[in-house]
Specification:
Elements: H1 2-13, H2 16-36, E1 50-56, H3 60-73, H4 78-90, H5 93-101, E2 110-114, H6 117-125, E3 131-135, H7 139-149, E4 158-161, H8 167-195, H9 223-235, H10 237-252, H11 255-261, H12 266-294, H13 304-335, H14 339-356, H15 367-374, H16 377-391, H17 394-418
Helix pairs in contact: 1-12, 2-9, 2-12, 3-4, 3-7, 9-12, 9-14, 9-16, 10-12, 10-13, 10-14, 12-13, 13-16, 13-17, 14-15, 14-16, 16-17
Protein name: ABC transporter permease
Transmembrane segments: 21-41, 224-245, 266-294, 306-328, 340-360, 401-419
Organism: Planococcus salinus
Length: 425
């Protein structure tokens, strides 16, 4: 078995093309994807920096004064009128919108400049701004009527963009959508409270709209961390196809037949494939993580606990890759063809990488694809890596690792059943 292990490692080290695929290609993709998409993952908003033109047609103060004047003319009871007047000053949508756009959470990515309509359109045409946000005339008055009195259709903001496929434009549109959705929700809550006998009070706590709410204690993952993990769990799968491909060469050169004549148990030969693939995979993962740590500063280098956890996850994944190499080897030997290895390396790896979240987070996928991806060895390993980076809790890592380990056991059992023996299949 140790002779088989040494042979596989030496053969791979002599193949510079395969080494380039296993090491150089993921390096290149990590750098390209990390820099190109660094603004699309949490923890990094500078890449989405955008300039927005604000065209103000509304006179907010005049709208509030006109609203209070209408309350007096409508003979609203004094106490209710006082509460509504105080509320109008607090929940004026124009002020709330501008406070959201100038909030600390958005200041790193959003630069709002107030321009007249003609200057704004010229700036958009010259691509000096990403979008134009227009606050229409009587926006405050119409909005207050709808919010506090339930009268009228309300008012709408006008957003103008030059490129509807622009990521920056879509992000800004999402910000406005979240603002209006939150404002409409609070209005509905206030109306429901009033219908039950409550009243809008000036002393009611103000609702902060448009803020960033953290719903978990997890640390954010930046783009270099994410794509280092994504490319690592993807390209480690190529180790299995590479080792199985070398086994096919051994079959063509009759090396495999000589092994069968020695009456060696298939387990010995396959064990060599598992160990060599696992060792090569572990070294590949180590080199990739070390590269990202030194060159891209993706991971902390001075935490022994962190690296022990990463090593444990990598070891389980490496064993699973070794088991996959054994299965591909058995299939190659049984059918006397390397077509299975070619299909696996040429297409199946890419499909597994997509389902496992190597290209985009699985949270962006439909539910059934997420469930399927969680059971792929690369997808489960990706989940384990991310959980460890964010939480440092080994109990959260055990579930995905158990799926990887279980997959390895099934693959090894399948390889033993399919492996051809001397004198027959």
């Amino acid at each position: 078995m140790w002779a088989f292990l040494k042979k596989d490692i030496l053969v791979l080290l002599r193949d510079r093309t395969e080494l380039a695929v296993l090491l150089l290609m993921p390096f290149i993709l990590i750098v390209i994807l990390g820099f190109s998409l660094r603004g699309l993952l949490m923890g990094d908003t500078e890449a989405l920096n955008m300039q927005v033109a604000l065209v103000q047609h509304d006179d907010e103060q005049a709208g509030i004064e006109q609203f209070t004047g209408e309350l007096e003319a409508a003979a609203v009871p004094d106490q209710a009128a006082e509460q509504l007047e105080a509320a109008a000053g607090q929940v004026s949508p124009s002020s709330l919108l501008q406070s959201v756009l100038s909030s600390p959470e958005l200041e790193e990515m959003l630069d709002v400049m107030e321009l007249d309509e003609e200057a704004a359109r010229q700036a958009l045409q010259n691509e000096e701004v990403t979008a134009i946000l227009t606050i229409p005339e009587d926006f405050t008055l119409l909005a207050l009527r709808n919010m506090l009195l339930g009268e009228g259709p309300g008012s709408e903001l006008e957003l103008t963009v030059a490129d509807t496929t622009s990521t920056r434009a879509n992000v800004f549109q999402d910000i406005l959508t979240d603002f209006t959705r939150s404002l409409n929700f609070e209005t509905a809550v206030a109306r429901a409270a009033a219908a039950e006998g409550g009243a809008i009070s000036a002393e009611s706590p103000a609702v902060q709209l448009g803020g960033v709410e953290t719903v978990s204690a997890r640390e954010p993952v930046n783009s270099f961390q994410y794509y280092t993990l994504g490319m690592a769990v993807m390209f480690v799968l190529f180790v299995s196809s590479t080792i199985a491909g070398k086994a096919n060469v051994e079959r063509q050169q009759h090396v495999f037949n000589r092994i069968l004549l020695t009456n060696r148990h298939p387990f010995v030969y396959l064990s060599g494939k598992v160990l060599s693939s696992a060792l090569i995979s572990f070294c590949q993962l180590f080199v990739l993580f070390l590269f990202s740590t030194i060159v891209l500063q993706a991971f902390e280098w001075n935490s022994l606990e962190f690296w022990l956890g990463m090593a444990g996850i990598s070891a389980v994944l490496a064993v699973c890759v070794g088991a996959l190499a054994a299965l591909l080897t058995s299939l190659t030997m049984r059918f006397n063809s390397d077509a299975i290895v070619t299909v696996f390396a040429g297409g199946i790896v890419t499909i597994l990488a997509f389902l496992g979240g190597s290209f985009i987070p699985v949270s962006e996928m439909p539910g059934f694809l997420q469930a399927f991806g969680d059971w792929t060895p690369n997808g489960a390993s990706m989940t384990a890596y991310l959980s460890w980076i964010q939480e440092r809790d080994m109990t959260r890592v055990m579930d995905p690792l158990s799926r990887v380990g279980g997959t390895a056991v099934v693959l090894i059992a399948g390889s033993l059943l399919l492996f051809p023996t001397r004198g027959g299949d």
